[in-house]
Amino acid sequence: MRGTDFMLGGRDFETLIAAQVMETNISRVGGTAGWRAIAHAMTDRDIQSVPVVDETSGLIGLITEYDMIRPIVEGKNVDEIKAKDILSKDMVIVTSDTPAMEVLKTFAEKRIFKILVVDEGTLKGVIVKHDIILAYLAATRKGPEGFDTSIF
């Protein structure tokens, strides 16, 4: 659930923090999850990446669609591949109290699609570009009369 689900609008976007715009109901896998289980999780949920965590939700890494494709291209037996074998440690991370404007700037500068929210090593949520745009809309909405529904 996103913090923006409860915003009524009229707030200053620059006062928001990552905890208010992140998604907390996220897919995640353990380091021993098999390639096929990861592939099904990603395709069934239509997600481009999935965080890899330990038994205490400590963040270990991230698996992207590219990480899933690479073993196939290399001719490896995907049934022998575990999450820990293909995860990437190259992740963009913020904390729950990171200002939303800083998150927005990070998306623009790094041209990424997902930012992980981690506090003291524990995965708390994720923010995708859609989330930050939604947060901006929700925070700056002036009310029903100023909300143009004709674009939907």
Summed over residues and divided by their number, the pLDDT gives a mean of 88
Instruction: List SSEs in N-to-C order.
Output: HEHEEHHEHEEH
CATH top level label? Alpha Beta
CATH level-3 fold name: CBS-domain
Number of structural units classed as domains = 1
Computed over alpha carbons, the radius of gyration is 17 Å
Explain this structure to me?
With 152 residues, the chain is α/β, with parallel strands linked by helices. It has a single domain, classed as CBS-domain (Roll), CATH 3.10.580. 33% of the residues lie in helices and 18% in strands. It is built from six helices and six strands. The strands form two sheets. It has a three-stranded mixed beta sheet with strand order 1-2-3. A three-stranded mixed beta sheet has the order 4-5-6.
Question: What's the gist of this structure?
Answer:
The chain has a single domain, classed as CBS-domain (Roll). Helices cover 33% and strands 18% of the residues. It contains six helices and six strands, in the order H-E-H-E-E-H-H-E-H-E-E-H.
